[in-house]
Specification:
Length: 329
């Protein structure tokens, strides 16, 4: 075992070998082959190219050199294309701090049975008067940057659970396709994390409508890892043991304390007062936050399933009891 595999348990080492085709004897050569490709993209500023950093991209793409380099390039290209989004990417940034304190994201202490870290989002907690969707995305990316330093998580990956309980249509109107696409590009296409599952629970009909809009931007691999549970928590528990879930998700653990992960990142700064000034944020949020009003949603019907915006209460009730949309590989 080389120093690059330090921090991995024997079980995870074996998993990396079997699932990711990671070979300690050739790890340095694999890394160098990816590094040698950097010269082919002089348009990108590769700000970090050390062995440990490149290794996480190889693990995220199962040691396919070309795919690992493409992910590495997209990681820095995404940051170059969205410079304002990555200014002051710190937990103490007012917008990020507010999002973190409201549980965007929440991070459970216990891992799942596959050693994956579980992120949870209670969508209704989004206080749109205090921070934007972009602040939430920044908080999630910052959190992942922190957690991906753990080599165990580089191999085992993450699971995301989004609870849409009490998430209103008014709140959903801020989730424009352009904003959701920004999130997809940042998480699916430009970050070296392995997502083993994305679970939606208690989702209303208009979340199904939004999912239909963004579905074309999702890779087949991502689609296969998305589950729509509705209010059927039993189907969630078939994949995520209730012993590690908070009571809000039908689990056996106490209710989730939204400040848990925020305190980890902020430490002593958690209780300090900060003032958020949306005007100081220079990303072109104007285009991203065009109100998805009923009129705008009408314009989206060309890509939304016919009739999805005219759900009756009966249909909505049936949707809430639907089984997982897709299963894992």
């Amino acid at each position: 075992m080389t120093h690059l595999q330090s921090g991995l348990s024997p079980e995870t080492l074996e998993k990396a070998k079997v699932e990711l085709k990671e070979n300690p004897d050739t790890a340095h050569q694999d890394i160098q082959e990816v590094r040698d490709m950097i010269i082919t993209r002089p348009d990108i500023g590769f700000l970090r190219t050390d062995d440990a950093f490149i290794l996480r991209f190889l693990r995220a793409r199962k040691f396919n050199h070309f795919e690992a380099f493409r992910l590495l390039a997209q990681y820095f290209e995404y940051r170059q294309q969205n410079l304002d989004m990555f200014k002051n990417l710190k937990a103490t940034d007012p917008g990020i701090k507010q999002a973190l304190k409201d549980g965007f994201p929440g991070v459970l202490t216990n891992l799942d049975r596959y050693g994956r870290k579980i992120l949870i989002l209670f969508a209704a907690n989004w206080d749109q008067s205090r921070y934007t969707f972009v602040d939430i995305l920044r908080a999630i990316l910052l959190s992942l940057e922190s957690m991906i330093e753990d080599p165990e998580l580089q191999v085992n990956g993450f699971v995301l659970i989004i609870d849409w309980s009490n998430f209103t249509f008014k709140q959903a109107s801020k989730l424009t396709p352009s904003m959701l696409r920004l999130a997809i590009e940042g998480l699916q296409d430009s970050f070296p994390a392995r997502f083993g599952g994305i679970h939606f629970v208690n989702q209303p009909w208009y979340i199904h409508a939004l999912y239909t809009v963004i579905r074309p931007f999702l890779k087949d691999k991502t689609r296969k890892r998305i589950f729509m549970h509705g209010n059927n928590l039993n189907s969630l528990h078939q994949l995520m043991h209730p012993e590690i879930l908070p009571s809000e998700l039908g689990g056996m653990m106490p209710p989730y304390d939204m400040g848990t992960w925020a305190r980890t990142l902020l430490e002593h700064a958690y209780d300090e007062e900060t003032e958020y000034c949306p005007e100081s944020y220079t990303l072109s949020v104007k285009d991203l936050e065009k109100d998805l009003s009923p009129r705008a949603m009408k314009r989206s019907q060309s890509v939304v399933e016919p009739g999805v915006l005219k759900r009756t209460e009966k249909v909505k009730s049936e949707e809430e009891n639907m089984q997982p949309l897709l299963s894992l590989d």
